[in-house]
Amino acid sequence: MNALIPEPAIHVDSQMRLDALADLSQRLLASARRRGASQAEVSCSEDAGLSVNVRMGEVETVESTRDRGIAVTVYFGKRKGSASTADLREESLEATVEQACAIARHTEDDDAAGLAEPELMANDLREFDSWHPWMIDADRAIDLALACEQAGRDAEVRIGNSDGASLGTGTSVSVYANSHGFVGRERSTQHSVGCALIAGEGDAMQRDGWYSIALAASDLEDVAAIGRKAAERAAARLAPRQVATGEYPVLFSAEIARSLVGHLLGAVSGGALYRKASFLLDSVGTQLFPEWFSIEELPFLPRGFRSASFDADGVATRESPLVTAGVLQRYILGTYSARKLGLPTTGNAGGVHNLQVASNAGDFESLVRGMDRGLLVTELMGQGVNSITGDYSRGASGFWVEGGRIQYPVDGVTVAGNLKRMFRAIEAVGSDVDPRSHIRTGSILIGAMTVAGE
């Protein structure tokens, strides 16, 4: 029972692996009870993957991975201890439980410690069409990566070099169980193809790329199309200019716009709030965005990147608005952070489960036309965001827009503002949703930001 099933059986026998992990979790919970733990929880996972990297028509790396992990957390009243292992031998498993118990016996009481309440456990456990193993061997994976890179190199005469192309595929099965009797099983796959190319020569070189990621290989973009788009993006960045420092509209392309939502999530997450390390303390019920703006959490999307019936505490997930009519509706809380704040959990231990930002505008081209004059941001650099004050300052590159049309590439500028003011100054969210993330948003236009250039 403890022996791992050899490849490629993890792909075809995922239910058998889930059964084995569920059985293992019950043995560990029983071991914790024998040692006097009042509560316990166990997380078990097994991952397998294949990744290849090529560059300039040559194979650089081929890697096959196989990982597993078992984490045990025990509670003795309000004292908590955790330990983990990747060793499935019986003596190692027992030692892991004993170590978790020993840690718990020597820690201080924490009033927020403990499992979520039993009545909050998920009881409608389902799958979301997230299991699509790609039975691809290394030779075929290499061929696809080479074809991706070659298509990009052939597409644009100004492509002189390459940072390479890659293909990856992986499977994951996991079980979370606790002493309330809850046992949750999850299985998922994820596949990706990407290419990064270099245009120009010498000091004038510019790098850019493109990638596709999906739960099912059939949903990936064509490898040649990925290479061609990488070439187009790299060549478009040649001969960048600066712009005069000033206040301008700033359009964040869809793949960059989700970082703005990420800053919101960080500020309204429980850990930042109970540590008083957020610029959005006491903000539930306040107007943060324009009245048309909304964000909804959708944990039950078929083939959603973060679809789940339960969170990392076993608590049932639910469809729920995060922002409605511009007003923040709730925080993002797991059991522990909710108790620290004296609030109910929102079923978000481990993070959010698929966010949809509502669009109020047309496609990317219409957003560019509507902006008329300003900066289109396609890349951000640096970490210049203060989570306590909301001050925002990041290096950026992209394109200058004049007369509603992209005119020339821009490099070496800084975009700056304050996130609270930036949120309120959002004028449009496009319909050009980037599907490569659990945060689904189109491009976001902010009416005015400081752009520091020449």
Name the descriptors.
35% strand, PmbA/TldD fold, Peptidase PmbA, alpha+beta, 6-stranded antiparallel β-sheet, single chain, 10 helices, 2 domains, disordered N terminus, metallopeptidase activity, 454 residues
Give the proportion of residues in helices: 10-25%
Q: Spans of 5+ residues with little confidence (pLDDT < 50)? A: 1-10
CATH superfamily of the largest domain: PmbA/TldD superfamily
Q: Assign an overall shape.
A: globular
Helix/strand structural class:
alpha+beta
Using the coordinates above, name the CATH class of the largest domain: Alpha Beta
Number of helices: 10
Query: Major β-sheet, in short?
Result: 6 strands, antiparallel
CATH topology of the largest domain: PmbA/TldD fold
Topology at a glance:
Elements: H1 9-12, H2 14-34, E1 39-55, E2 58-76, E3 79-85, H3 90-105, H4 138-155, E4 159-178, E5 183-199, E6 206-214, H5 223-236, E7 246-252, H6 254-267, H7 270-274, E8 295-297, E9 320-324, E10 327-328, H8 335-341, E11 355-357, H9 364-371, E12 374-381, E13 391-402, E14 405-418, H10 419-424, E15 426-429, E16 439-440, E17 444-452
Parallel strand pairs: 7-12, 11-16
Antiparallel strand pairs: 1-2, 1-4, 2-3, 4-5, 5-6, 7-17, 8-9, 8-11, 9-10, 12-13, 13-14, 14-17, 15-17
Helix pairs in contact: 4-5
Describe the structure in brief.
The protein is α+β, with helices and mostly antiparallel strands and 454 residues long. The protein has helices at 9-12, 14-34, 90-105, 138-155, 223-236, 254-267, 270-274, 335-341, 364-371, 419-424, and strands spanning 39-55, 58-76, 79-85, 159-178, 183-199, 206-214, 246-252, 295-297, 320-324, 327-328, 355-357, 374-381, 391-402, 405-418, 426-429, 439-440, 444-452. Strand 1 (39-55) and strand 2 form a beta hairpin.
